[in-house]
Amino acid sequence: MITGKAADRTVAVEVAPGGALQELTLEAAALRLEPDELARRILLLTAAASARATASLWHTQDGVEALGLPEPGEAAEETTPDSWRAQ
Which region ranges are annotated with the description Disordered (predicted)? Predict the structure, then answer.
């Protein structure tokens, strides 16, 4: 799980790999915010945590390539199976 927290710790979100929101935590101070500001914070934190969760899918887990995607900096051509190449 990936967690995102507001700088003032009033709002925290937790997302699963892939970005699905799993948990939303609001401190009492968050409830004193204007509704638009509270919504903005929730959306921004969720988007940031989702981006980190999605990026984590690009990296290897225990030596196995997640999703079969190339390592950062690796050219896509280097990962293309020979059977997919034009003959």
Answer: 64-87
